[in-house]
Amino acid sequence: MVSGPAASGDEGPYWSRVKVFFKMVDPRNALLGQSDVDWARQVLSGRAEHPPSVVERAQDIVQCVVHPDTGLPVSPFFLRLSCIVPANMTLDCLMITASTPWQTAGAQALNQCYNAAHYWANRNHTNDEPPVRVAASFTAATASSVWAALRLQRAASAMQGAAAVVLRRSAPFLAVAAADVLNLGIMRSNEWARGIAVKRRDGTEVGRSRRAGAMAVASCVAARVMAAAPVLLSSSFALEAMERAGPFRPGAALASLRVPAALAVLGSAIVCAVPLTFALFRREATVSVSWLEPEFRSLDDGNGLPVTQVWYHKGL
């Protein structure tokens, strides 16, 4: 089982974490299976016998495939972070090209269905999530995103000029941002309601903290919203520019390439935005015991020395 800083290793400074997330969003890692994980663990258990390049590849496989709480590969494979680029390219393209209420509602519902499954697979596994909570999360997030997108589209249609364009093109992001708060907040409510495992540096669990759970969920919400902003806004306004002028405008020579061009913008934005924003928060996060419940403030490290900070798995 992979858990705690002692097992996962030091995540390093910000740009080191960005590099790790660039590897994690690589679609080539989506199809890695248990045999690959077994090989990687065998290499890491005897790393002195292997060249640095082989050890680095083994570390990449474990980081990209294995859930830190369970020690098992994230399954099914399409819910891994390595599938986030092709999945979100498709879903985001549907959202930014939707032109009717039914298309908007359908695109938002599909996006939240994927998000709910993705959040569930990559959550903190301290607590079991009952199916009813998963269903409630999906229902609330879908309803909020559809409602927000349709209301914003209606408001934009009543406006004129640049303000209407800005609101209409911002609607997909604003709807997704509102839904992400509900989706993650409800899906992972056990984490802030019942607490998550917190550990000493050596990986020894010292209890469960509701405050740590709230921080884990809040940081994941912030990362998801910050990642969605450049992706949906840049591609949506790029699509608007192509529709208004240049060779991609309706009836022009390259009009049929408008959607492929939007997909290229989406893919580039996802590959850049996800690592840069997700790396802002460590997966194995630390927190001072002074921020947690009173029972954590008198901990010792087993040798009589006080524990000043603890670790917890944030999730994605």
TrEMBL record:
The keyword Hydrolase does not apply. The chain crosses the membrane at residues 259-281. GO terms for biological process: amino acid transport; mitochondrial transmembrane transport. Keywords: Amino-acid transport, Membrane, Mitochondrion, Transmembrane, Transmembrane helix, Transport. Belongs to the sideroflexin family. This is Sideroflexin. Pfam families: SFXNs. The keyword 4Fe-4S does not apply. The lineage of its organism: Eukaryota, Sar, Stramenopiles, Bigyra, Opalozoa. It comes from Cafeteria roenbergensis (Marine flagellate). It is a multi-pass membrane protein. One of its GO terms (cellular component) is mitochondrial inner membrane. Its main location: mitochondrion. PANTHER family: SIDEROFLEXIN (PTHR11153), SIDOREFLEXIN (PTHR11153:SF37). GO terms for molecular function: monoatomic ion transmembrane transporter activity. It is found in: Mitochondrion membrane.
